[in-house]
Amino acid sequence: MTCFCPHELFVNTKADLGTCPKIHDDQLRKKYLEDAPGYKKSRNEAEFIRFAERMIDEIEAKIKRGRMRIALANGPDGVSACRNRIQMF
Fold first, then answer.
1. Which of 21, 32, 53, 87 gives 20 to 30 Å between its CA and that of 9?
2. 1 CB-near residues (< 8 Å, 6+ apart)
């Protein structure tokens, strides 16, 4: 019950989350947004925030692994091994 569904953000990308297990109903969403703040509302918002934070952590880990892979491919002098082989010929 938020403004958007994170499952719809990265469709057809490497970060695609697949189909959303939640119910998407505009009438329920409207009623939820009109209701006064309460325990259930704050619990849902906290769950959404935890989900978003997990997504961010996973993406940051992928970025870190990618940077490490690039650093290893470049070697200690910062020049890629592929470039060195090309310059030899």
1. 32
2. 28, 29, 32, 33, 41, 44
What residues in the chain have per-residue pLDDT under 70? 1, 78-89
- Residue 1 in any domain: the answer is no
Domain count, the chain: 1
- What is the DSSP code string of 29-80? HHHHHHSPP-HHHHHHHHHHHHHHHHHHHHHHHHHHHHHHHHHHHHTTTT--
pLDDT of residue 80: 61
Q: Is 42 exposed, middle or buried (0-12, 13-18, 19+ CB in 10 A)?
A: exposed
